Amino acid sequence: MTKRILLAAGGTGGHMFPAQALAEYLKNLGWEIVLMTDVRGHKHAGNIPAQKIIEVEAASISPRHPIRALGGALKLMRGVKTAKAFIKDWQPNIVVGFGGYPAFPAIKAAQALGVPTILHEQNAVLGRVNRVFAAKADMVVSGFEVLEKLPSGANWQALGNPLRSAVALASQRKYYAPQETINLLIVGGSLGARLLSETVPQAVASLPEDLRARLSIVQQTRQESLEFARDIYAKAGVKAVCAPFFSDIETHLAKAHFVIARAGASSVSEIAAMGLPSLLVPLAIAMDDHQRINALSLKKRDAAHILPESEFTPEIVKSILVETLNDSSWLKTASKAALSAAKPEATADLAECVIATANL
Q: Which residues contact 85 (CB under 8 A, 6 or more apart)?
């Protein structure tokens, strides 16, 4: 009999990418897959091989805004009603949640109806929605070896963050320290990218001429910062490709010698899988400071530098680039150290947990 899985995920790449990886894996095993998310998530779900995408109402709840919180709670309850009706009709063998408020209705409904649930937490701090359901979930799976805010008694395993197949395939290449050209990749993430978009070009422009001449830069740049970044690089004589989004980011990761990035779970996991030395800039407004804790998985192995936003200035970034890009020995050892943090079997391991739990 064909197995059925209902995936539930919030509307950002951080939630959707691991859901996509699991869906790709299980589809190859013949599973039927449905994704439940909200309207924003639906827009980002195009690459998930689901037979159907169910939209439910969802909203975040902030105690600081009681009126808005009440409205959010009503939306969530309507979402739970929709999720219950679908689960009763479709009868999935298991529901797997990847966090975010759009995952709330499906997990709430599944646990109320006695359907097995697994929660996947991408970050090193358990998210607010996953915290609500962790104690009753059959299993909580995390992307990092550390998982803060985990309720006592929860059945937890640290299996890693599933990587999209394109990234996993690209990570098979071997890292080589730069000889002549140095490939520098800058990815800003969806939030707070202006800091990286504008600070890095200024830092690069102030580098010694001989180092600038060796650089080949690919930078994810906010639309409003594109002209600024391109102009600075051009005046500094630095070869650079700047764009708001790269659909083939795995290609640029595979070519990079050094990465400057935010410390979202997907970014840190992909950097580890690729064995890339990095400079990580945790998003200051990230809930529970989870990006800084994510970044520590690489920092403690001496595979990455961590620079808080308050210190992310052209002068300090310049000094780090001069120190690291001229040190082939450190780049090689940092690459190996980053790889030691990777969990390349995360997708298969999560799938095994799903299969075992669904068969209970």
A: none
Q: What is the mean pLDDT of residues 7-31?
A: 92
Q: Which residues pair with 95 in a beta bridge?
A: 6, 117
Beta-bridge partners for 139 = 118
pLDDT, tens only, 173-230: 999 999 999 999 999 755 447 899 999 999 999 999 999 999 999 999 998 899 999 9
Helix or strand run (H / E) with residue 258: strand 258-261
Given CA atoms 195, 201, 205, 210 in this order, what sign does their dihedral have?
Answer: positive
User: How does DSSP assign 311-347, residue by residue?
Assistant: G--HHHHHHHHHHHHT-HHHHHHHHHHHHHT--TTHH
Provide CATH code, domain 168-340. 3.40.50.2000
CA distance 7 to 98: 8
4-163+344-358 and 168-340: identical CATH topology: yes
Which residue, 293, 254, 296, 295, is CA-closest to 276?
254
Q: Where are the domains of the chain?
A: 4-163+344-358, 168-340
The total of other beta-carbon atoms located within 10 Å of residue 201's CB is: 28
Q: How many CB atoms lie within 10 A of CB 243?
A: 12
| Sequence-separated (6 or more) residues with CB below 8 Å from residue 141 | 118, 119, 120, 121, 156, 157, 158, 159, 350, 353
CATH superfamily name and code, 4-163+344-358 = Glycogen Phosphorylase B; (3.40.50.2000)
Q: How many CB atoms lie within 10 A of CB 68?
A: 13
Q: How far apart are CA 163 and CA 166, in angstroms?
A: 8
What percentage of the chain carries pLDDT values higher than 90? 81
List alpha helices for 91-151, DSSP H: 104-113, 128-133
CA distance 177 to 327: 9
Average pLDDT, integer, range 237-254: 94
pLDDT in tens, 29-82: 999 999 999 887 777 777 899 999 998 876 665 555 444 555 667 888 898 999
Neighbours of 155 (CB within 10 A): 14
- pLDDT at position 72 is 65
